[in-house]
Amino acid sequence: MLAVALKNKPLWILLLVLFFLATWSPTGTFVEFPKYWHDEAFAMEQARTFLELGRLDFIVAPNTPSGMAIALSANGPPLSIPLAGVFYLFGIGLLQARVYMLFWLIAVTIAVYLFLKKTFDTPSAVAGTLLMATFASFYANGRTATGDIPGLFFCVIALYFFVHKRQYAWSGIFFALAAVTKTSAFHMALPAAGIVLLFFEKKLFFLPAIRFGTGALLVILMWFLILLPYPYSLSDLTPLIEFYQNPTHKASLLEQFSGGIPSLLFSSTIGYFGILALIVFVAFFKSRRTMSDAQKRVYVFVATYAVLQAIVFLRSPGWIRYLVALEIFILMLLFPALSALAPSKKISYALVGFLAGFQFAHYLSFSNILPRADITPHVAALNQLLDEHTGSTIGFIDNLMTSAFIPSSKKFNYIHFGGSTAGAHPFTLPQEEWPDFMDSIGPEYAHIQEYFYEPFYLSDGEIVFRKK
């Protein structure tokens, strides 16, 4: 793929646009933008735990994995294991994670360009990749260490094997890799591909379906073996099944849809992509008889995935990030759609140029991708504290974003995630097992703070609580 990419001059220009936008920050500091957040912290904690203990999990007590990684982790092994390798080579830090994600952004840009060129033509490849590379959410999700963009990379590779090579075992492998990398965004790609397979391989469905399912099953079984503490215990799957049955922990099915419906009706992002999706939909029905079989498969896959993923979104609290991959698929198909509807290519070029310019300006000036102050000084102060107090430990309450930078042997974590919890509050343990320091305590344990802990100032001026 890289050798072919080197011969495509338009791709080099697109990669320069990508590199500028992927390293730009309104604060001038690379790691502050987009803001560091809890899904990214889960990936970093998993990578650290894998590096230190050989387990893709997060720590709930010194050197004690939670055993709940498969249910609570937002990202999968294809993201976290290479990240652990980066940490091994270059040290553990947010900068290292963000630089690592640049390579995923470059990889998916190359993959999208080559896929569109193979499926349509060079103008479609340039236009689709340019629209993706100027899309703010591409960077909001891709610059942070989360699985959306790595999952998209695997999904595009899967589509290549699915629509061009008809190598269904390989397509099953890569669709499953996408699903385990970012389950919430790509698990519906598997049934969507299955439906497309049934539609296009009616007479020969059984054998391709067996190949596809075998490829997907191999990856899913490996996922279970890596993440489950006891892979042969079906009870360990219960939290995962319960989460996807009811991700918002609402009492009724109607209540489960109450979070996504307002976003569907009032989100400007959904309105924007709704218009673009309508253009793609109309263009498909107008030109479907002149399309190649590969092009039809791509359109039908995207339409099927859109329906299934919309259900996932509607059952969420209104998280637009569940739709990022779908939005990028729409951008990828927009130029061929415009070419089918517009009277001339010049109009299609002009419309794509306008949209790319609009998205570019939106990303630089108006997007709500917020920066956050660099957490590095506070993390350095905490690690300095623990180094100066040999053998000491520190407890964190719902603060994996900080604890991910603390060695596995020196921390407690008590984490709420939706309606689930992992670990135990340190103060529910026997008193002799309480941490030497607490990052925070909370009002419900104010009596313990008063009698057993005292404020302690770190070198960065922040306060933790030290056991008396």
UniProtKB/TrEMBL annotation:
Q: Name one GO biological process term.
A: lipopolysaccharide biosynthetic process
Location(s) in or outside the cell: Cell membrane
Gene Ontology, cellular component aspect: plasma membrane
Q: Where are the bilayer-spanning segments? A: 68-90, 97-116, 122-140, 147-163, 169-200, 212-232, 264-285, 297-314, 320-342, 349-366
Q: Which organism does this record belong to?
A: Candidatus Ryanbacteria bacterium RIFCSPLOWO2_02_FULL_45_11c
Identify the domain of life: Bacteria
Q: What is this protein called?
A: Glycosyltransferase RgtA/B/C/D-like domain-containing protein
Q: Does the keyword Endoplasmic reticulum apply?
A: no
Where would you say this protein principally sits, based on its record? membrane
Q: Which GO terms describe its molecular function?
A: pentosyltransferase activity
